[in-house]
Amino acid sequence: MPRNQEVIRQWKVLHALESSRHGVTIDGLADELDVTTRTIRRDLAALQEAGFPLYDERDEDGRAHWRIDGTVLKGLETGFTLAELCAHYLSRNLLEAVAGTPFQRDLTNAFARLEKMLTPRMRQFLDRLPSVLVAKAGPRAAGSESSPDIISRLLEATLHFRVSTMRYHSVSSARIKDYVVHPYRLAFAQGGLYLLAYVPEYKDIRTFAVDRIASISLEKQTFTPKERIGTEVFANSLGVNTGEPRRV
Question: Do 215 and 145 reside in the same domain of the chain?
């Protein structure tokens, strides 16, 4: 089982409960996430242990429908749902790219307020989610725009370690090329979004501009990362480049 897959699935359970108006049955969650009902029961217990306000109600046929109590956020006047509030808390990794700017103090205060809205056990659960999105500050690249569908698939591939087939417009060769890749990380840098992926054909990690990805499909096959990528991507370069630092 890929590392952190359990907590990712539990996040999906939480989101499914909140997005359902009439609650969700354990059988329904098991079918949606393609796991056993025993696994869903463990996930629900783990979420309750983490402090999320889950409860079940019986319908006329005696079936239990699980819900999340949204009233726990009343009085905070945030305008956010619980899942949205958690997502804002997680987004701090992206906003750290503006560290050292005039916004840093305001961001620090904003995230301090967000943390107070979540219980310590909730924050502990959220901090287990893998950091698949990182950022490097820089000017916005002109004309850089990525398809939301492609970004969604890349996030899915990165979170679940899915081998992917990608069609990519290579600037160096001035042609469309097909790649089989192991997506490791998505990174914002120089105003654009980039994919860091291991390419088995080259036996190396390569960087791809997401706005030049024409299409991507996720295979059923999963992979185990061969190398570890730190949180400071492109740390040794002036732009979007990887490699060892050199004295100039």
Answer: yes
Tell me the two tokens of residue 182. 């192991």
List the domain range (segments joined by +) for residue 83: 71-131
Sign, CA dihedral 212-156-182-236, equals positive
How many structural domains are present in the chain? 3
Boundary of a domain, candidates 70, 95, 122: 70
**What is the per-residue pLDDT for 119?**
80
Residue 187 near residue 229 (C-beta atoms within 8 A): no
Same domain, 199 and 148: yes
The torsion defined by the Cα of 106, 110, 115 and 116, in degrees rounded to 10, comes to 110
* pLDDT confidence band for 16 (50 / 70 / 90): confident
Assigned domain for 168 exists? yes
Distances (CA, A) of 113 to 75, 107, 140, 220: 14, 10, 29, 41
pLDDT confidence bin for 75, thresholds 50/70/90: very low
Distance CA 231, CA 132 (A): 9
Q: Which residue has the higher pLDDT, 240 or 245?
A: 245
Same domain membership, residue 99 and residue 50: no
Structure confidence by residue, pLDDT tens digits, 131-151: 555 555 555 444 445 577 888
Bridge pairing between strands 175-189 and 64-68:
unpaired
Q: State how far the Cα of 27 lies from the Cα of 37, in Å rounded to an integer.
A: 6
Say if 35 falls within a structural domain.
yes
Residue 37 lies in a domain: yes
Q: Is the pTM of the predicted complex or chain greater than 0.90?
A: no
Looking at the domain assignment, is residue 205 inside a domain? yes
